[in-house]
C-alpha cells in the first residue's frame, strides 16, 4: 500500500491536472478497501496473535508508517482518512488484548514460580554469582512484565499505560504467591542440604525486584510499599530462619548474666560476641545491603536480650556504689556490642543510646535527675513503658515506693508520643 501510494505521488500525480485529485482518489480507495477487510476480520473470534497484529496495524503501522511516512505525509495528512476501524471496535479489541496479556503474564509467572519451587524441593543448589547465592526467578519475572509492557507500547503508548495498571494488579498477586511458596519451603525444607543457600538466594532476589520496581514503575510511594510488602515479609522470615540456630546458641549464654547475678558481665559478653563472630561467615553469600540488614537484626537481638536479662528482677542493689559498679559494667558491655556490630556493618545507630541510658538511670541517685533521663529515653524509644521502667528501677533497692511512683509518672506525659518506627521495648515482655 505504501509503495503504491508513493508511486502515485511520484509518477501519476505529475501526469494529471491538480483538480483531478489523483492522490486523494487512490488514497481513499485504498483506505476504504482496507477498512472494509479489517471490519470483516474484526467480526471473527480472533486468536491472541491476530488481535495484537490487528491493533498494531490499525493504531501504529497504518497511521505512523503510511499516513505519516516522509513521502506521503504532505499529501495525506489533510485528507481526514481517519481510522481503519471505528473507535468502539478498537476499544473492544484493546480490552481483549489486555485481558489476554494479563492471563499470559499470570500463567508465565506462575510457571516460573512452580519451576523455582520444584528446584528448592529437589534440593538443587542455587547458582553463585559474584560470591552471592543467586536465583533467576526475579530476572524471569522482570522479563515477563517488561515484555508485556513493551508489547502494549508497540501498539500505542496509551495502551502501554493501560497494561501497566493491569500489571500493578498481577504483580502484587504474584509476590504474595511467591511469599506463600517460600514460607512453605521454610517449614518443609529444613532437612535439605541446600536449605540455607536457597533461603539466602531468595532473600537476594528481593534486591532485583526492589530495584526494578523503583527504577521502572514510577508509582506513588504507597503503591510501591504495597508492591514491596510481600518481599519485606519474605526477607524478614528468611532472616528469622538464618538466625534461628544462632539465637538458640545465645540463649544459655545470656542467662549467665542472671545465673551469676552479674558477677562477671564482661566475660559473659565476650563469650556471646565470640559465638556471634564465629557464625558471621554463614551470611557472607547475602548481598551487601542484606548483610547490613541482617547485622542490624542481630544488633537488635543482642541489645534486646541484654535488656531482658537486666529486667528479670533477680538483681537488687541497695547501695549507690553497687549501682555505679553495675552501670560501669553495662556501659562497657554497651560499647563492646556497639563497636562489634558497627564494625561488621550494622547501620543501627538508633540502638546506640539504648543501654548507656539505662546504665545512667541505674547510676543516678537523685529522683529528679532520673525523671529527666527517663523522659529523654522515652522520646528515643516511645515503646518504653511503665512496666519496663519498673523492671529497671527494681534494681535500685534504695528507692522508696513514693520515689518510684514519681519517676514512673513522667511516662504519663510521654505516652502521647508516636508509635516507634522501629520496635525495641515492644519486643520485651515484662511481668
Automatic annotation (TrEMBL):
Which Pfam family, just one, is annotated for this protein? Sec6
Instruction: Kindly list the biological process annotations in GO that this record carries.
Output: angiogenesis; cell differentiation; exocytosis
GO CC: one term? exocyst
Q: Which UniProt keywords apply?
A: Angiogenesis, Developmental protein, Differentiation
Taxonomy, superkingdom: Eukaryota
Provide the function of this protein: May play a role as a mediator of inflammation and angiogenesis.
Against PANTHER family, the record matches this protein to: EXOCYST COMPLEX COMPONENT SEC6-RELATED, TUMOR NECROSIS FACTOR ALPHA-INDUCED PROTEIN 2
Family indicated by similarity: Belongs to the SEC6 family.
Quote the protein name from its UniProt record: Tumor necrosis factor alpha-induced protein 2
Organism for this UniProt entry: Homo sapiens
Q: Gene behind this chain?
A: TNFAIP2
Amino acid at each position: 500500500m505504501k509503495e503504491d501510494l508513493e508511486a502515485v505521488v511520484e509518477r501519476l500525480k505529475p501526469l494529471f491536472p491538480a483538480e483531478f485529485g489523483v492522490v486523494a482518489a487512490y488514497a481513499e480507495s485504498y483506505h476504504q478497501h482496507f477498512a472494509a477487510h479489517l471490519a470483516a476480520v474484526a467480526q471473527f473470534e480472533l486468536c491472541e496473535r491476530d488481535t495484537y497484529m490487528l491493533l498494531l496495524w490499525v493504531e501504529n503501522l497504518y497511521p505512523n508508517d503510511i499516513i505519516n511516512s516522509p513521502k506521503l505525509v504532505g499529501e495525506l495528512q489533510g485528507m481526514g482518512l481517519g481510522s481503519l476501524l471505528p473507535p468502539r471496535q478498537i476499544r473492544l479489541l484493546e480490552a481483549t488484548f489486555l485481558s489476554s496479556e494479563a492471563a499470559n503474564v499470570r500463567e508465565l509467572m506462575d510457571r516460573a514460580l512452580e519451576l523455582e519451587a520444584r528446584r528448592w524441593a529437589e534440593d538443587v543448589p542455587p547458582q553463585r554469582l559474584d560470591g552471592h547465592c543467586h536465583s533467576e526467578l526475579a530476572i524471569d519475572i522482570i522479563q515477563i512484565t517488561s515484555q508485556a509492557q513493551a508489547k502494549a507500547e508497540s501498539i500505542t503508548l496509551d495502551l502501554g499505560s493501560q497494561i501497566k495498571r493491569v500489571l500493578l494488579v498481577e504483580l502484587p498477586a504474584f509476590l504474595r504467591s511467591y511469599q506463600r511458596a517460600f514460607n512453605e519451603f521454610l517449614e518443609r525444607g529444613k532437612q535439605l542440604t541446600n536449605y540455607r543457600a536457597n533461603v539466602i538466594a531468595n532473600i537476594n532476589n528481593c534486591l532485583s525486584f526492589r530495584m526494578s520496581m523503583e527504577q521502572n514503575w514510577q508509582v506513588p510511594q504507597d503503591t510501591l510499599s504495597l508492591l514491596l510488602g510481600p518481599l519485606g515479609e519474605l526477607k524478614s522470615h528468611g532472616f528469622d530462619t538464618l538466625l534461628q540456630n544462632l539465637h538458640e546458641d545465645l540463649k544459655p549464654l545470656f542467662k549467665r548474666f542472671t545465673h551469676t547475678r552479674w558477677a562477671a558481665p564482661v566475660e559473659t559478653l565476650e563469650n556471646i560476641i565470640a559465638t556471634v563472630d564465629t557464625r558471621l561467615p554463614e551470611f557472607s553469600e547475602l548481598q551487601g545491603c542484606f548483610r547490613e540488614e541482617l547485622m542490624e537484626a542481630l544488633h537488635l537481638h543482642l541489645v534486646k536480650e541484654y535488656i531482658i536479662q537486666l529486667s528479670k528482677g533477680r538483681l537488687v542493689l541497695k547501695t549507690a556504689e553497687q549501682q555505679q559498679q553495675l552501670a560501669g559494667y553495662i556501659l562497657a558491655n554497651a560499647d563492646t556490642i556497639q563497636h562489634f556490630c558497627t564494625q561488621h556493618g550494622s547501620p543501627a545507630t538508633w540502638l546506640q543510646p539504648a543501654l548507656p541510658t539505662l546504665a545512667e538511670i541505674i547510676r543516678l541517685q537523685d529522683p529528679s535527675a532520673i525523671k529527666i533521663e527517663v523522659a529523654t529515653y522515652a522520646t528515643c524509644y516511645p515503646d518504653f513503658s511503665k512496666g519496663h521502667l519498673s523492671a529497671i528501677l527494681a534494681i535500685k533497692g534504695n528507692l522508696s515506693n513514693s520515689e518510684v511512683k514519681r519517676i514512673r509518672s513522667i511516662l504519663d506525659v510521654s505516652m502521647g508520643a508516636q508509635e516507634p518506627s522501629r520496635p525495641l521495648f515492644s519486643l520485651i515482655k515484662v511481668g
